[in-house]
Design a protein that fits this description.
The protein is of the alpha+beta class. The chain has a single domain, classed as Heat Shock Protein 90. It has 5 helices and 6 strands; from the N terminus they run H-E-E-H-H-E-E-H-E-H-E.
């Protein structure tokens, strides 16, 4: 999550929202970052999971997230609109033995605030899946499981 939130800041986001949805009944963990940064065009979004497409200083955050999600029975969706922002969603099977622990969310948020004090980050735990579907479907450029080669 740290890389996704740092990507938001690098894209000029003033606001980012981290959604964490754990649905034990459905056996799904969902992590989502939505921001109001500069967004991406379709071509850039299509290369989102290619670790070699960004040139020097590229980060592996999204490609590694996509690989982990795939290995844990899930996947990644992303949407973006230039000038409006980006949303990246990752789904994981809660019962998969390779599912990594959540880690130190408070420490991650403190790090983001220290590195990017101008960006506010909100956390919504237990976000509604339908709400996130509608938000992501509203982006004109979208990537559905494009990271799952």
């Amino acid at each position: 999550m740290l890389d996704l939130l740092r990507n938001s800041a690098k894209a000029g986001a003033r606001r980012a929202v981290l959604y964490v949805r754990e649905d034990r009944k459905a056996g799904v963990l969902e992590l989502c970052v939505e921001d109001d940064g500069r967004g991406m065009d379709g071509e850039t979004l299509d290369s989102l999971c290619d670790p070699f497409s960004g040139g020097a200083g590229s980060h592996l955050g999204v490609p590694l997230l996509a690989d982990t999600a795939r290995r844990c029975g899930g996947g990644v969706r992303a949407g973006s609109v230039p000038g409006r922002g980006t949303m990246v969603r990752a789904l994981f099977s809660l019962s998969h033995p390779d599912l990594p622990p959540m880690g130190d969310l408070a420490g991650t948020l403190a790090t983001v605030k220290a590195l990017h004090p101008a960006m506010s980050v909100a956390v919504r735990y237990g976000a509604d899946a339908e709400e996130l579907d509608k938000k992501l479907d509203g982006f004109e450029n979208s990537l559905e499981d494009g990271c799952l080669r």
